[in-house]
Design brief:
Chain lengths: ~450, ~750
């Protein structure tokens, strides 16, 4: 089982379910730092390059929660693999702006910023998006922002295709010469992980490797026939269970229906959104899972597969109790679908820290409007029940109603009777109850801006 | 630029080495610390047999294996390294498991059999005070006559103020590597701010002389006070392991262990009484301050005294009586954190003034400005204010931010928006520079000039990101008159520079920089003598600058390298050691009066926020700071300290919330303990006071590490002010952090 580590082909000699960070540090790549080991700080950021037809696509990912199995046949770039005789323009800008103090987080920032320019999708976003998953406790963010602006001024790759971009970045000294040969190296390597029987299903592992130090008997779903794309069919939009959060966020199909690009900005950080999958989020069954709440509020259905057999289930019926699902032994989530139809939709999330945090309460609502009435109402809330909560009674109540203050008030009462929050690190029960109320009001104030909710 | 570049470039390349990055010795053992799982109790059974037989285990050590004194306490001797019979907090080290791999050591820990007899535990400082549980006697600072002063006050206000703790979140966790040397000597690489503390404490624990322990620190990946006293135990644990096994031992805590086992900023709960004239002059201030000190003293008493020193912040108050109670609770000993008790004291007085402003119906900034320190005003600890920039920075801030106009705009905004409200707040600061324990205000330096002209500098300062080595390099470069490229700043090593004080109290550059300067001056004197003989001129006519010898201001052919080589050939000592001790400071511990600080740092900040009253969330929009950095030695370093300190302060006041359940910390990871990140960061504008030379410190600079932290307190009051624009009918409870939860509950909960 081989992969390319910086400029060299390397053999993996550790369990495939263990952390890539630990592996790299043991090999002496100490520029990759450990600070949290749960994907929260970005000190261990690496680039993961994967062959896609004629190109190698790079993404900056946190190596601490990346299982080794996921690097087979791929290109892993550590800070050591970026360093050249001269500082790269990214390193140079960080130095010039004094955007490094104790230095422990700095290689991670360099990797995130380098990865930004190696990915044709992400590079269209604000450069700061690339580093929202990097923590610096010395608080150099103001300087980092100044450095990032300088970098964005200097490096312009938007209009370049892969090979032109790689050449340009080499010319500018952003990446070393050897990147030119990686495609060839990977092609020669031609390593692919074989599907390996029964064990723990692994998708993005962004929570799995947080919960466990290593995954015993990992079965990498990326090797099964589960789709990772988003497509339209028979009046539905389908999302493959292995589609990443970031792919979902940037999906053209979905963005035509609602502002998912913006909505999911508050869902974890880019390096995690790249790795985390829809399916993983659904079967994690966290009562506060952002994607789960999002799609519950859209009245989504999911498709479950076991061997050749598939069945369709409303997502709201999937959750039976705390971390319990209607999922048979050997069955996997295959895809999710929503009706490809414009509707009114709003997503709300309140957390201690707005970006890159788990919600205290999140909520989504969707409905159609006919004349003055709202129909097909789906309302979900997270963090206030043992399961991601679909507010069945409240949704039913709102169906066929003309929305006014009176109706909202009644809906709030019904919603309040449907939830059972507990006090924990995300907030007291009292607070969460109040938040549910406020977020439902926020839904209506957002979707009916002309209406003043009087309570 | 050049200096900072050479310093930061290795950071950006990931080539700067921290303890866990050092090449591992081949026969290395890994330590795992087995700790208490209950907050208070007696160990009735401890059976290590099964664990000892676990694969890979080399040895398990308990308190019985300590050859010297089982004692960590620096100020008060009340803290054991390894529990003997009574555990006092969750996460207290009981045994050390040494094994071939980390995993093996950890696996073995699961086989340790332990039984406790649980004892009642206390977590709240006021409850501890009621029960008479203190780690030390109370401490009072006073001046004037508070009791008599109340009569002269037109307005008297009483209230309660609370603040939470704060986790350091240094990105590099606590770490140490101990390597046995010959003749019972042990070399320790430690991620510490206080190598001499590590050395002395370890020597005591092992029953060895200090000369048997060498501590070396290249740099640390963040400290913020968390590695001033609490890096010691991990180093001592490794050294104890190395002592017994004669093998190198490494311990790097993982994040959860680190958060669980180590101390944090002290939570406080205080009662105050403030009295003012109807014109707004503060006449009297009295406070009872309950510090949650944790299970043992650590630095708590010193931290508490700084709280008392700074409990009047930038204001002159003629009658003050502040009493601090260090309360013993069953939590890991709380410890130093940037500001060292100062922030807690300043939050207290700011809350008192804020409430007074509300009661009196005047804007807070008016009260603040009225009471700012003037030249010659005397603090309640007897020191007179010299070169006060309190008023100057406050006034410059008002001008810089167009304050009155801004205030009007915000009022208008708030009137035309129902759910979005803006708020602002001014936070002045006055922070005393020097260790409040006078003897600590000393530092040593060793400057060596090699015969090729290159220079090696060692000091007692620890580089932790605050840029002290950048500054020292600059100081040395100026003092010797050579290009900084020729100068290397060495690791901090207890064998090269001895009896160092911790790099703390913002004094790193002041003390060590000055020591380096003195050492350099001595070398220059010797070199001038050599040059004068060589050039046949008087030494007084000589100046060394830009790598050349100048005579009467004229450049000669004699370059630095040649000069150094001549000195060597003439058998001149090219090594110089120096000690700097801050002059003129003293503190009479009986009278509680003196001049504890070499000088004060001043400044003021304006914080602007927007809150969403529907969702109970806030955004810190902008912070403008006018700061007194003296004559800055390095602009980028000082700017970084100001911006970074501010951000930590905002975090402490807003989203950084520690949560416990029966002494178990719940917020034990980055997933549950949130610190400011990039999107959280406001626009920050920093202006350093011009023409603010400080004659009391090296190159007329001022210390910068801690003071900016306290600008963060402004965020609390700005959010509060925005909140009051939405709701005013309910009494405000002064309790930090002001989390989104507290905000929303305030906005919508009934009065009851």
């Amino acid at each position: 089982m081989k992969f390319v580590l910086n400029n060299k082909i390397e053999e993996i000699d550790a369990p495939l379910g263990s952390s890539t960070l630990d592996f790299l540090r043991k090999k002496g790549f100490t520029g990759v730092k450990e600070a949290c080991h749960e994907g929260e700080c970005g000190a261990c950021m690496i680039l993961l390059g994967e062959m896609e037809e004629s190109t190698v696509k790079y993404k900056a990912v946190t190596s601490c929660i990346l299982p080794l199995g996921e690097i087979i046949g791929k290109h892993v770039v550590t800070i050591e693999g970026i360093n050249q005789e001269k500082l790269t323009p990214i390193q140079e800008a960080i130095v010039e702006e004094g955007a490094s103090q104790c230095g422990f987080c700095t290689p991670g920032f360099v990797m995130s910023l380098t990865g930004f320019f190696l990915n044709e999708i992400f590079v269209k976003e604000d450069i700061l998006t690339a580093i929202e998953g990097n923590l610096c406790r010395c608080g150099t963010y103001a300087a980092i922002k100044r450095a990032a602006e300088k970098i964005a001024e200097k490096i312009k790759v938007e209009d370049l295709n892969y090979s032109a971009r790689v050449n340009y970045l080499i010319e500018l000294g952003v990446i070393p010469e050897y990147f030119k040969n990686i495609h060839e190296k990977l092609e020669k390597l031609n390593e692919k992980l074989e599907s390996n029987g029964k064990g723990t299903n692994v998708a993005g592992a962004t929570d799995l490797l947080v919960q466990r130090e290593k995954i015993e008997k990992p079965v990498f779903l990326s090797q099964l026939q589960i789709r990772n794309d988003i497509w339209e069919e028979d009046g539905y939009i389908y999302i493959g269970a292995l589609a990443s959060m970031e792919d979902i966020r940037l999906s053209e199909e979905l963005n035509e229906l609602f502002d998912i690009k913006n909505d999911l900005r508050v869902v974890s950080a880019l390096p995690i959104r790249i790795r985390a999958t829809l399916g993983g989020n659904l079967v994690n069954a966290s009562p506060i899972g952002d994607l789960t709440i999002y799609f519950l509020g859209l009245g989504a259905e999911i498709s479950l597969r076991k061997g050749e057999k598939s069945r369709i289930l409303p997502l709201k019926d999937f959750y039976k109790g705390y971390k319990q699902m209607d999922l048979e032994e050997g069955e996997v989530v295959e895809s999710l679908r929503i009706k490809s139809k414009k509707r009114f939709f709003n997503f709300e999330k309140v957390a201690m820290r707005k970006y890159v945090d788990i919600a205290s309460v999140n909520s989504a609502i969707s409905f159609e409007k006919e004349e003055n009435k709202i129909k097909n109402v789906h309302l979900s809330v997270g963090g206030v029940a043992p399961v991601p909560k679909y507010l069945e009674k409240t949704s039913n109540f709102l169906n066929d109603k003309e929305v006014n203050s009176e109706v909202v008030r009644e809906a709030l009462e019904i919603a309040d009777s449907e939830i059972s929050p507990i006090s924990d690190v995300r907030g007291s029960a009292k607070y969460k109850r109040l938040l549910v109320r406020q977020l439902i009001i926020a839904h209506f104030m957002t979707l009916f801006p002309e209406m003043e909710v009087k309570l | 630029m050049k200096i900072i570049k050479e310093f930061l470039a290795p950071h950006t390349k990931g080539e700067s080495l921290y303890v866990d990055d050092l090449p591992e010795p081949s026969n290395l053992l890994h330590a795992f610390v087995f700790t208490s799982t209950i907050p208070h109790g007696k160990i009735v059974k401890l059976n290590l047999e099964k664990a000892e037989k676990s694969p890979g285990v080399c040895k398990i050590l308990t308190s019985k294996d300590i050859p010297g004194e089982n004692q960590l306490g620096r100020i008060i001797q009340d803290e054991v390294l390894l529990v003997e019979d009574e555990v006092e907090f969750v996460g207290q080290p009981i045994a050390i498991i040494l094994a071939e791999t980390k995993e093996q050591a950890k696996n073995a820990s699961k086989l340790v059999e332990i039984e406790y007899e649980e004892l009642p535990a206390v977590f709240d400082p006021r409850e501890a005070a009621e029960k008479g549980l203190f780690i030390a006697p109370s401490n009072t600072l006073s001046n004037g006559d508070v009791d008599a002063a109340w009569e002269k006050c037109d307005v008297i206000i009483e209230g309660t103020v609370e603040n939470g703790g704060q986790e350091h979140v240094y990105l590099e966790t606590q770490a140490a590597l101990a390597i046995p040397d010959e003749n019972d000597k042990i070399l320790i690489y430690s991620s510490t701010q206080a190598p001499t503390t590590v050395q002395g404490t370890t020597a005591k624990i092992l029953g060895l002389d200090m000369n048997k322990i060498e501590v070396d620190v290249k740099r640390i990946g963040g400290g913020f006070g968390g590695k001033e006293d609490q890096a010691t135990q991990w180093a001592a644990i490794c050294a104890l392991g190395a002592y017994h096994t004669k093998r190198p031992v490494k311990l790097v805590l993982n994040r959860k262990e680190d958060i669980q086992m180590t101390g944090k900023r002290h939570p406080y709960s205080s009662d105050y009484k403030i009295g003012l004239t109807k014109e707004g002059k503060i006449i009297a201030f009295e406070a009872s301050i309950y510090q949650n000190s944790g299970a043992s003293a650590d630095l708590s008493t010193a931290i508490l005294s700084r709280t008392l020193f700074h409990s009047t912040n930038s204001y002159y108050i003629p009658n003050v009586k502040v009493t601090g109670y260090p309360c013993k609770t069953n939590l890991p000993p709380f410890t130093a954190f940037r500001g060292f008790g100062g922030p807690q004291g300043m939050f207290l007085i700011e809350a008192a003034i804020d409430k007074a402003a509300e009661v009196m119906g005047v804007p807070k900034h008016v009260l603040q400005e009225k009471n700012l320190l003037n030249e010659g005003d005397e603090f309640h600890y007897g020191q007179k204010v010299e070169r006060s920039n309190a008023r100057r920075s406050f006034e410059e801030l008002l001008k810089e931010t167009n304050f009155e106009q801004k205030k009007k705009e915000i009022e208008e905004f708030n009137q035309s928006n129902k759910y979005m409200k803006k708020g602002l707040s001014i936070m002045p600061i006055c922070f005393g520079i020097s260790f409040t324990s006078t003897f600590l205000n000393q530092a040593g330096a060793l400057v060596n000039i090699y015969k090729d002209g290159s220079v090696s500098v060692s000091t007692g300062a620890i580089e932790m990101g605050q840029g002290v080595n950048v500054k020292i390099r600059h100081i040395v470069s100026l003092a010797l008159g050579i290009d900084p490229e020729r100068i290397r700043i060495e690791s901090t090593n207890t064998t090269r520079v001895i009896n160092t004080s911790p790099t703390a109290a913002s004094t790193g550059a002041d003390l060590n920089g000055k020591a380096a300067e003195i050492a350099c001056n001595r070398l220059v004197e010797r070199l001038k003598k050599v040059a004068s003989e060589k050039l046949q001129v008087q030494p007084e006519e000589i100046e060394i600058k830009e790598d050349y010898v100048y005579v009467k201001g004229k450049k000669t052919e004699l370059g630095w390298n040649e000069l150094v080589n001549s000195a060597y050939m003439s058998r001149v000592n090219l090594s110089s050691q120096a000690l700097y001790a801050t002059p003129k400071i003293f503190f009479n511990k009986e009278e509680k009066k003196g001049k504890p600080f070499a000088y004060h740092v001043f400044g003021a900040a304006l914080t602007e926020v927007t809150i969403d009253c529907l969702r109970g969330t806030y955004t810190i929009d902008k912070v403008t700071i006018v700061h007194d950095a003296g004559k800055s030695i390095n602009y980028l370093v000082d700017l970084g300290q100001t911006e970074g300190g501010l951000l930590q302060g905002i975090g402490w006041m807003t989203i950084e919330q520690l949560m416990y359940k029966e002494g178990h910390i719940l917020t034990n990871s980055f997933a549950t303990y949130k610190v400011p990140n990039l999107p959280f960061t406001p626009e920050i504008k920093v202006k350093f006071l011009e023409n603010a030379e400080n004659p009391e410190a090296v190159l007329k600079s001022k210390a910068i590490g801690e003071p900016p932290f306290m600008y963060g307190i402004g965020a609390y009051f700005a959010i509060k002010n925005a909140t009051r624009a939405f709701r005013k009918d309910k009494e405000w409870v002064y309790s930090a952090p002001l989390t989104p939860e507290k905000l929303l509950l305030y906005l919508y909960e009934n009065n009851s």
